[in-house]
Design a protein that fits this description.
This protein is an all-alpha fold. Helices cover 77% and strands 2% of the residues. 41% of the residues are buried. The model is unreliable at 226-230 (pLDDT under 50).
């Protein structure tokens, strides 16, 4: 562990933990009011608002980075508006390429996780506890501190740990918005050591440390998942009625809704608007020029090849994830105790690895064993499948475990073969969940950048790589046009999954 004796490495490790801690804390603070609001109130358009708040989490990280640059950057929409308002040539708001920019992007990306996890727990809290406390004279504050908050602590802790791990392993956001060496994290340093300096031993040491921290976090999540209240809450209040009654809580909820809509839609709207901008004859005009360039059949059209590669890789990796996940999820569902925990940790292990080192390792494996015999695109498919398979398992496992065990026993007693049992009983029960898991894996592969950047060459360009290259070349309008296409693909996939979930619930 010689790398721990290097003050620079220690500084990088310290900053990685610090920014992940702050990001997780701020995400909890932003998501907590949303969990409270969606648990206690109904209001017009609630379903669409819920979908809007969940949207940032399913977006590719490079798309979020571009949205932050276009909305909060020195020449972004906020600064352009303020400069026009105050008649100045200097950007009034300059915080993006710093710790503040990293935190804003991470909160934008992760507050829906906190809202979802805490909200699901909040809805399970029985109102009987609160009614009993009210009958004993406990006020609103005391009921919250003595009953509600202790019951929510396991979900708050789970959300915090999960977001902490995601932010500690963040790459694209740190790489672009970090603003220099001062804000280097473990993941970025691994990239620099492995890809630029070719110091694989140092990169491996950091990856080992990062993987260890991730495994500890996952162990905490697995231990805490069963500490949940499983009772239903009472009916929700109608928000417009509470607003008419001048309820301070209701007005606070309305203000939170408006702020979140600006926070979520503002950066995404900046991408859409910027995709129509072109600097021509000394001024900015709005035109369809970039979209004409994207879909024109011409030589060296990198967008069309990137789109084709992304779709192929996404569908191929989702199919591989489904086939591999089916076998692994069966192993987990029908085991108990230590054997079950072993298989759960094993299937989650790819999430603990640095995606940068993961990609570099796959690149060296390909160069040493498969180059010239297997096309690189199939290697990228397999790599994406390994990264998305844990998510596939987590989606399908609860549904598989909900199937009554006696069905299998009764099927055997009736002399039915395993194939017949699977087609007539398991498949009708699991097909909707399979669809959800498949498209979720496809969406994750579609936006994957970290590992792909380490292994892909010009023959395997993807949409995230195309956007990153355009950002690096300061071709923001072109990057925005490509990002809009990627956004449409991600949103369409999200809608398919959401509709499948609603159909399943009905």
């Amino acid at each position: 562990m010689d790398f721990l004796s290097d003050p620079w490495n220690l500084r990088v490790i310290g900053f990685s933990l610090f920014q992940a801690f702050l990001s997780a804390l701020l995400s909890i603070l932003v998501g907590f009011p949303g969990a409270w609001l969606l648990t206690h109130y109904d209001f017009p358009g609630q379903r669409w608002f819920r979908l809007l708040t969940y949207l940032p989490f399913i977006l590719p990280s490079i798309l979020v980075v571009l949205a932050m640059v276009l909305f909060y950057g020195n020449n972004g929409w906020i600064n352009r508006g303020l400069m026009s308002l105050f008649g100045t040539d200097e950007a009034p708001v300059q915080f993006l390429y710093s710790l503040s920019g990293i935190l804003i992007a991470h909160v934008f990306y992760n507050f829906p996780i906190a809202m979802k996890i805490i909200g699901d727990q909040w809805e399970r809290i029985s109102q009987q506890y609160l009614q009993a406390a009210r009958s004993l004279g406990a006020g609103t504050t005391k009921r919250f501190l003595w009953i509600t908050l202790p019951l929510l602590l396991p979900s708050i802790g789970s959300a915090f740990v999960l977001i902490f791990l995601l932010c500690m392993n963040s790459f694209a956001i740190i790489l672009v918005l970090g603003g220099g060496l001062r804000y280097t994290t473990i993941e970025v340093l691994i990239y620099q050591l492995a890809r630029i300096e070719l110091d694989f031993s140092g990169a491996a040491s950091l990856a080992f440390l990062q993987g260890g921290l991730s495994l500890i976090g996952m162990a905490i999540l697995l231990r805490g998942r069963n500490r949940r209240v499983e009772q239903k809450s009472v009916a929700k209040s109608w928000l417009p009625e509470k607003l008419r009654n001048r309820s301070l809580k209701a007005w606070f909820g309305l203000c939170w809704i408006l702020l979140v809509m600006i926070f979520a839609l503002g950066p995404l709207s900046a991408i859409v608007l910027d995709s129509f901008r072109k600097f021509e004859n000394g001024e900015w005009i709005y035109t369809l020029y970039w979209y004409d360039q994207l879909f024109s059949w011409r030589e060296n059209n990198h967008f069309l090849s990137s789109l084709w590669n992304s779709l192929r890789i996404g569908l191929g990796s989702a199919l591989i994830s489904s086939l591999c996940g089916l076998g692994l999820v069966s192993l987990i569902a029908y085991k108990k105790g230590a054997r079950r925990r072993f298989w759960e940790v094993l299937t989650l292990f790819p999430l603990a690895l640095s995606t940068v080192v993961f990609g570099v390792a796959w690149f060296h494996f390909y160069q040493g064993n498969l180059a010239g015999t297997v096309p690189l695109i199939y290697v990228v498919m397999a790599m994406h499948a390994l990264l998305t398979c844990p998510y596939w398992i987590r989606v399908v496992l609860p549904t598989l475990e909900s199937i009554p065990r006696q069905w299998h026993m009764e099927s055997k007693m009736l002399g039915k073969k395993s194939l017949e049992y699977g087609l007539r009983i398991l498949w009708p029960w699991l097909r909707t969940t399979f669809l959800i898991a498949f498209f979720f894996s496809f969406s994750l592969s579609l936006g994957e950048l970290n590992s792909t950047m380490m292994i892909a060459d010009e023959t395997v360009r993807t949409l995230p790589l195309e956007i990153y290259g355009a950002i690096s070349g300061y071709r923001f309008s072109y990057a925005s046009a490509v990002a809009v296409i990627l956004l449409l693909l991600s949103v369409s996939t999200f809608i398919v999954v959401e509709r499948s979930v609603r159909h399943f619930e009905l």
